[in-house]
Amino acid sequence: MPGMDTLYRVSALNTAYAATIDGDRLEDWPGFFHTDCLYKITTAENVRRGLLAGIIYADSRGMLEDRVAAIRRANIFENHAYRHVIGMASILGEDADGIRAEAPFLVVRTMRDGQMTLFAAGRYQDLLRPDETGALRFAERVVICDSPRFDTLVAIPL
Amino acid sequence: MDDGATILNTHHWPAGISRVPFWVYQDQAVMRAEQKRIFEGPVWHFLCLEVDIENQGDYRTTFIGDMPVIVVRGEAGALHGFENRCAHRGALIAFNDYGNTKDFTCAYHAWRYDLQGNLCSIAFQRGVGGKGGMPREFDMRQHGPRKLRVDSIGGLVFGTVDPAAPTLEAFLSAPIVAKIKRVFNRKLEVIGRFTQHLPNNWKMYAENIRDTYHASLLHLFFTTFKITRFDQAGGVTISPDGAHHASATIGKGIETQSVYKDQGIRSDSEEFLLRDDSFLASSPEFGDDIQLQNVALFPGTMLQQLYNSLAVRQTVPRGVDGMDLHWTFVGFADDTPEMRKMRLKQANLAGPAGYVSMEDGCIGNFVQRGVAAASDEIAIVEMGGYESESQNTRATEASVRGFWKNYRRLMEI
Ligand code: FES
Ligand SMILES: [Fe+2]
Q1: What is the model's pTM?
Q2: pLDDT tens per residue across span B39-91
Q3: For ligand 1, what atom is nearest to the CA of residue B109?
Q4: What does the alpha-carbon distance between residue B358 and residue B354 come to, in Å, rounded to a whole number?
């Protein structure tokens, strides 16, 4: 049975993760993951039906770094920012693979002109392991959005 | 009556297909006329995949323009389609995205339909205890939702409401059928579905998927990472009526940036290398050197082959200034695990977060907002001339003109 310490460490990681994206420090975002990892954005319906594709699908930290490089240097979109509200994590289990955890999230998107929308709601399905320094990192973070529909485009990661 | 002639009483459209007035993206009357003349006109619309409705009683619900429809697998493998509207008071007959059923019973008053959409029973038709009930002379055979003609090609199911529409193959034309069958040549398997809401009139996206001119100018991922270039071989094939288009990019995908440097344009951003380009290590699977093939079917369906990333994109209008784009990512049932993994990784290229498609999510809205006060001004569509015949370059807007050629013909506008 995982203790309070695990819950605290996972929650602290989620908080830092949200602050990094929302604070536009995207260059630091890949650092939350192991070199070998899975980051995917999908929908609840795809998960229910066992459909494996995501709108973002990265199986290495390198792919996450490339995502950031593309957003910064190649992709074109109107300025906007996210505000993540990540709920208290549930620690589902802990074994040789790492800690299995899940946390609900809401993301509000604020556009350049001030328009604010509830952009995404869903849950993170995570597998976490410590890195060589002992800090927790994501081996897997699957972003499962409740809605099948994305407004306009998804540039900044969730 | 909202038809082309009435609309032209109050709106002007220069002759030809190389100029497009902005009111066409803004006007409610135009939208109503489109529903009658295009969505319910002699046009075949993508509905779903054959593998979505494999077994008898499997159905999916979707839309033809504003019209909700049900497409269902009937007896002996037959495909049926009908309007998702109860003959009684008009409620949706089915209100899930998909399912399996013996028949369809309307939730409101339990009128029942068979898999072909025939009304086959009415609750309390003879009343209760000899009281109430429908008049004796009411004939169920005279009532029911509008039926579609349904047909399929390459595992893609299409439907049309118009009995006067040509056959599906004739509608698509032989050159386009060949392009479809090049990719959709065996049993498909869905690997994911996503919907993207685009805040623009649906026709802007219909133009966008035919606009080979913008690809390497707006989508800088291509040029930054040298994925596709005008100096590679390729071109566009356009059906004789202009309606459909197939573009191809042939080559290995790696080139110098000299063309852009000479032009001194924005695409000339300094190159940088991907940290992990494993997702671009695609393997040719169609027996040729075509790296990218995009087939745009009139009005708003796009069949995508981006290396090994295969997808169907279906346009559903949502009011004058919005639309939903339904992405169905597919592989083949006989994919190797390696090929399937490659498709998952290449799904990064296109989709709501696609490296080479995300800009299309906002660019139509930039136009929609840009033309807000310019109903009577016009867009210029003259790259590559004034006509809409096939061309061996992608620096052309011939396919966009083709869309308008067919649009004006159908709308009589
Ligand atoms: S509306 Fe369908 S049964 Fe009444
Ligand atoms: Fe595009």
Answers
A1: 0.95
A2: 999 999 999 999 999 999 999 999 999 999 999 999 999 999 999 999 999 99
A3: 3
A4: 5
pLDDT of residue B255: 39
DSSP B198-259: ESS-HHHHHHHTT-TTTHHHH-HHHHHTT---TTSEEEEEE-TTS--EEEEEES-S---SHH
Touching check for A30 and chain B: CB below 8 Å? no
**Chain B residues closer than 8 Å to A58 by CB:** 348
ipTM: 0.97
Q: Are B119 and B87 in contact (CB under 8 A)?
A: yes
User: Do B197 and A52 lie within an 8 Å CB cutoff?
Assistant: no
Chain A residues close to B275, C-beta within 8 Å = 60, 62-63, 65-66, 69
Residue B155: count other Cβ atoms within 10 Å of its Cβ: 18
What confidence score (pLDDT) does residue B392 get? 83
User: Residues near B306 by Cβ (< 8 Å), separated by ≥ 6?
Assistant: B292, B346, B349, B350, B356
Between the CA of residue A96 and those of A54, A130, B291, what are the distances in Å?
27, 12, 43
Kindly calculate the radius of gyration of chain B based on its CA atoms and give it in whole angstroms: 23
- The reply to whether ligand 1 has any atom less than 6 angstroms from the CB of B104 is no
Asked if omega into B299 is within 30° of 0 (cis), the reply is: yes
Q: Which of A158, A97, A90, A157 is nearest to A127 (CA)?
A: A97
Single out the residue of A123, A127, A140 nearest to residue A91, CA to CA: A127
Where b means 16+ CB within 10 Å and e means fewer, A45-79 reads: bbbeeebbbbbbbbbbbbbbbbbbbbbeebbbbee
Q: What is the DSSP letter of B145?
A: P
Asked if A107 contacts A133 with a C-beta cutoff of 8 angstroms, the reply is: no
To the nearest whole Å, the CA of B73 is away from the closest chain A CA by: 20
Q: Does the beta carbon of B88 sit less than 6 angstroms from any atom of ligand 1? A: yes
Looking at all shown ligands, the one closest to residue B207's CA atom is: 2
**Dihedral through CA A29, CA A32, CA A34, CA A35, nearest 10?**
20
CA of B111 to the centre of ligand 1 (A): 6
